[in-house]
Amino acid sequence: AVLGVLVSGRGSNLQAILDAIQAERLRAKIGVVISDTPGALALKRVAGFDIATTVIERKKFADRRSFEQAIAAELQLHHVELVVLAGFMRILSSEFIGHFPGRIMNIHPALLPAFPGLDAQAQAVRYGVKVSGCTVHFVDEGVDTGPIILQEAVPVLDGDDEHSLAERILHVEHKLYPRAIGLFCEGRLRTEGRRVIITEKR
Ligand code: GRF
């Protein structure tokens, strides 16, 4: 499938997706990388590859609607089939989501529905949970509320702060996101209400 990856920053998940494609562990193609932040490290990660990149800044648009329309137009221009949010720090409206029904994925650094929103790893440390992890889910109108595709747990250790926990989770994110995208590309994800069923490999 053709992927459109939306980023705002570091882009380590983008890197993991790129690596999986290069290693032929993931049969997909990145059609375009869109950043809402100029100079994001994520953009540098695809430099040297034959991948289109675009910066679309919120402040260049009068309102969220026209900003999102510009993103949607760019994705459509590149025939994107799956929109991959990889550290994209903005909430998308239901109008935008309606353009790509069942075709937007996000990764969140906690075991949802625990600790949605910002600073999930700090939330987990503050709460005192003994296990956290990451979640790949389809995006719906809510914040980190969409149907869950894959989750993996990591321990929270006594000495952890948000940074050490984030690092442990990130390591797992980098395996889980390419795997979830692969399942989508193989046509193996079926949604029944809130539940995502992973069908057998044919
Ligand atoms: C990751 O922790 C991801 O779970 C969250 O934002 C972070 C993005 O990191 N949504 P990166 O830009 O992929 O390095």
Q: How would the blueprint of this fold be written?
A:
Blueprint: E1 2-7, H1 12-22, E2 29-35, H2 41-45, E3 52-55, H3 64-77, E4 82-85, H4 94-99, E5 104-108, H5 120-127, E6 131-138, E7 148-155, H6 162-185, E8 189-192, E9 195-198
Parallel strand pairs: 1-2, 1-4, 2-3, 4-5
Antiparallel strand pairs: 5-6, 6-7, 8-9
Helix pairs in contact: 1-6, 5-6
The structure holds 5-O-phosphono-beta-D-ribofuranosylamine.
Helical amount: 25-40%
Q: What small molecules does the structure contain? A: 5-O-phosphono-beta-D-ribofuranosylamine
**Helix/strand order, N-terminal first:** EHEHEHEHEHEEHEE
Largest sheet: 7 strands, mixed
> Which CATH class of the largest domain?
Alpha Beta
Total number of distinct structural domains: 2
The count of DSSP E runs of length 2 or more, i.e. the number of strands, is 9
Radius of gyration: 16 Å
How many separate helices? 6
Pathway: Purine metabolism; IMP biosynthesis via de novo pathway; N(2)-formyl-N(1)-(5-phospho-D-ribosyl)glycinamide from N(1)-(5-phospho-D-ribosyl)glycinamide (10-formyl THF route): step 1/1
GO molecular function: phosphoribosylglycinamide formyltransferase activity
EC number: 2.1.2.2
Pfam families: Formyl_trans_N (PF00551)
